[in-house]
Design brief:
The chain is α/β, with parallel strands linked by helices. It is built from 14 helices and 19 strands. The protein folds into four domains: 143 residues, Rossmann fold (3-Layer(aba) Sandwich), CATH 3.40.50.2300; 98 residues, PAS domain (Beta-Lactamase); 76 residues, Orthogonal Bundle (Helix Hairpins), CATH 1.10.287; 144 residues, Histidine kinase-like ATPase, C-terminal domain (Heat Shock Protein 90, 2-Layer Sandwich). 26% of the residues are buried.
Length: 480
Amino acid sequence: MQDSKHLTRILIIDDDEDDFFITSEYIKKISDRQFRIDWCYKYNEAVKHIRNKDYNFYFIDYYLGAKTGLDLIKEAVVLQCEEPLVLLTGKGNQMIDKEAMQAGAMDYLVKSELNVEKVERCIRYSLERSASMKAIRLNERKFRSIFERSKDAVFLANEELVFRDVNDATSSLLQFSKDQLLKISLYDLLEEKENNFIRDRIAFNGVLHDREIELQSKEGEKKNCILSLSVESDSNNQRYIHGLLHDITELKKAEKATLLAEKLAATGRLVQTLAHEVRNPLNNINLSLEQLHHEVSQVDDAEIYMEIIQRNSKRISDIITELLNSSRPAEMSLHSKPLQVILDESIAAALDRITLQKVKLQINYAPTPAFVKADSEKLKLAFLNVIINAVEAMQENKGLLMIGIESDKENHIVKIRDNGSGIAEENLSKLFEPYFTSKRNGLGLGLAATLNILQAHKGRIEVTSELNKGSQFTITFPAA
């Protein structure tokens, strides 16, 4: 009994039975292999065998009635046939030879020139080449699968970083469709200074390792990424660039939030220590003031000075209370309420200021109620602080204040944007720190209190700004 593992199944597709017998006799005389040889003379039946992968090898005659062997080879390639296809013809024809190889044939034999040696060599070389091709295709499918399924953005580009092939993660990160990406360069999404650095590194040694960059997506969103690039060459010695983008946007946001929380915690400890150290002598001053009030009431002008001391002592006490409130976790009474309602109340509270400043107001809310767990009074105060700051940053009669709500499955996002004076880049990181202010008479506690309230609502706040163009506060809440 023949071992099926070492048995080569061959199908001879020929409309002439005599030619089938001649070809099969040559195959049978090959002594170092085991074969099962079958005959098929119908084109459609041959297609069925190829589709079902019934054989390991196919000899195909050029003439098959209404259609040719070339037609069958082309159809087999469409069916993703990976088994060797060898074309047989009655006489040599260089044009048919070239066409057969271009169509996907593994070899081309002339029937009148056949012998055992030629047939054996054809079968051996074709099977070896087919095995190599299958291994290459298997690797290609494996690496294509890794390429497509990677959560990191993986891409191929030319030397000007114009995209040539991208995976789904690249499209998702940059917010362009694949077709759109194939028309642009990565340089289009970066600042000129960054582009110059990348060009220099690629020109110097053809490699860029783990460069932290900030790029801009199609929607204008800033993305923090780790970029790696390497220059490669294909089989034709054409240079291309393989690139990898690892999105660290959320990680950077978490780092900023952690750093800010640590700053606030340290500030809170300082405030509490300061309040304790100031209030003790302040209490002594107030007690002494009450005692003196009875003793010096008859002295001229004493009452005036006593009132000055009392008024300023109270002011110091009030400031300390405000400082403590800005550093303590806000106490909340949370209830489910739509953000649309809370924002409307905040806008109403700021309406006089908006009207006096002659600011144009644009409101764009999500059509469905954006429910969050909120202490509406405190959250209204937080929104009001942001809105008032935006109004104060804009010029009279030139201001545009845009307030919107967007929603997805997990979050509701409030965006408050102005076209005011903007915030200097060096001040953005200090914006929510207590006592930091750019206002002449400000204490710098409004946005610190706002952050405190938002954190108590599990909200995240991000600020983007450009000098003389305006600022945007983006506040993200978990959906209730």
